[in-house]
Design goal:
The chain is mainly α. It is 58% helix and 5% strand. Strands 1-2 form a two-stranded antiparallel ribbon. Helix 2 packs across helix 3. The radius of gyration is 15 Å and the shape is globular. The protein starts with a strand and ends with a helix. 16% of the residues are buried.
Length: 113
């Protein structure tokens, strides 16, 4: 399998792109949008009329998104939802960062033996 070097410590197979959940795809797409527009979760939340906490949870795959919120994203941000859900090899660093943040939280939540 072709591998892409993402960090000094993290490597991901390109095949991981096919296994991403809807939440992960959306989080990566929102991350890409934030980087292109140079905006924060707070900025995006204000545009949608939702809380910054809600937007943060969505970008960390901790919260499901309603269909009405997806529709609002499309209208307010002037994007096509399919584009937000499309993840390519260029997004591998974002996928690695997302998975590494989620992995750290899971490891710290384990009880000590």
């Amino acid at each position: 399998m072709p591998r892409v070097k993402v960090d000094a410590d993290v490597e991901l197979d390109k095949s991981i792109l096919a296994s991403l959940s809807f939440q992960e795809r959306l989080a990566v797409g929102i991350g890409r949008l934030k980087a292109r527009r140079r905006v924060t979760n707070k900025d995006l939340a204000e545009q949608l009329g939702v809380s910054e906490a809600y937007m943060s949870q969505v970008t960390r795959c901790m919260r499901d998104v309603k269909l009405s919120t997806l529709d609002k994203m499309q209208r307010e941000w002037k994007v096509v939802i399919e584009d937000l859900l499309k993840v390519t090899e260029d997004d591998l660093p974002r996928v690695a960062a997302l998975r590494s943040r989620r992995g750290k939280k899971k490891r710290t939540a384990e009880p000590a033996a």
